[in-house]
Each structure stands twice: as structure tokens, then as C-alpha cells.
Hints:
- This protein folds into 2 domains: 1-59, no CATH class; 62-179 and 249-271, no CATH class.
- It contains 2 helices and 19 strands.
- The chain has helices at 11-18, 74-80; strands at residues 61-65, 69-70, 72-73, 92-96, 101-103, 110-111, 121-125, 128-130, 151-152, 163-167, 172-174, 188-189, 192-194, 198-200, 205-206, 238-240, 255-256, 262-266, 269-271.
Amino acid sequence: MALQASGAISLSDLATEFGDTTPNSMSEFYAGGSLVGTNNASVPASGAITLANFYSATAAIVLDITSSASEQNILTLATAAGYNASTDSTPIIVNIASGVTISGSSTHALRTGALNADSDLTINISGSVDGYTGANGGLVAVPGSAGGDALFFETLTGGSGTYIVSVLSGGSLRGGGGGGGGGGQRGIRGSSYDSKYQCQFATPVYGSYGSSGAAGGFGQAGSQGGSGSYGGGTNSCPIQSPGAGGAGGAAGFALRKNSRTVTLNNSGTVAGSAA
């Protein structure tokens, strides 16, 4: 329920609406902080602030993530807290505590889900949100796979929602590294060569497969696999030429916006693209 539009308003009214515990202080109620959503246009984010700024202000759904977990969906968490994406434009604030890691294993580490397009979303990261590392390619030049995204915004059209991601001091938002490329095909030669019968293939001489490339670190592509080689000997009877190694996989995104307008504030570590 929103606060009153006029008349007497107190600090305890703010505490009740926004779920603050005593002792209460006006400095706790800046917009975009841990209690008050940016949907409240009359509430400043810093500087001078008065009780009158809070006429008609409304609380956000606050989701505090205090334990490490894999592949979290903000819509799922908000729905469990009473949110209805079909009808509800309540702003949502997600706080990821220091020491907590949200990791990906096969898909995005943290995703928004299809929230109501009019819901503001503020994500404050004091812990870590990490995409998974892509798989290395196999032999015969199989490319490495792409790393996973750390934070993925679902594609939505329309709506007036405002989206803010703040990586706070000590926090990190890191796309997964790409997998290393597989080694290149080995070369093969015939066992001998003479002017009458040309190449003799009865006992092929095998070379070596190329070495696999290394997986990339957070926000980095994997490296290409090494090229294969011919085996020893001096004969010149090529059966199969050695091949180049497979390409390294692309890095995952730190923040994949999917055409949404997202403000990224960084006082910690962001590794990977934010686009």
C-alpha cells in the first residue's frame, strides 16, 4: 500500500511501508538503495531528503540473497514473495550479499525472468555473479563452446520500467570464459616412396594431434587449439595433411541487456561485455 498523498507523515510511516527496522534514519530511505525503489520519482537518490518527498511513495519487493546458489531466476523469487507479473508493477530490489556466489552451470547464473515491463528492477551486487566456463573442444579441431552469461535480461517490449545494476565495492559480475579449441588433425604419410610404385601405404607413419587450447578466464575467450603435425621420417608420401586447431569459444557476457536500457554502476569488478 502506498503512503498517504498529503497530511501528516512520519519516519515510522516510512519504516512500516518500506520494511525498515529500528533505529530508523532518513539516510536509509534514498531511492535506489536497499529499501526504496527508483519508481518513487519524488524521492532523491542522494543529498537533501525530507518526509514530504515520500507522499504517495510505495514499497518495493526486496529480495535478499544471502546464500550461494546456482542459476537464480528473479521472477521465480519475486513470485514466491507475492509478485504477479501479469498484473503487478511493484518495483523489485535484489540484494546479493557479500560472500555469496551465484553461479551458472548450464545456463545463465542470474536472469530476470519475464517481469512486468512496468516494474522497476534494481540489483545490488556485493557478492559474485559468475557465468560458467565453456567446454573445451575435442580432438580433430572441434571448437570450444561459449561461456555462460552472468546476468541475463529477458527480452521485453514496451513498459516504463527502470533497470539499474550496481556492482558494489568487493562485488563482481563476471561472464564465463570460453572453452579451449580442440587440437588439429594429425598428419599421416606413407611408409616409403620409390620411383616405380610411388607412395607405399602399407605401414603409415602417423603424426601427432595438436594440443587442446586453454579455457579463458572470466570474461575471456578460450584459446585456439594447436595444429597437428606429421610424424618422423623423411619420406614425402602425404596421405593426410595435418590440420589447424579448433577455435576457442567466445566469452559469456557479464551483462546481456537484450535491447533493454540498463544502467550499470561499477565500484567492484566487471569481467566481460555488457551489451
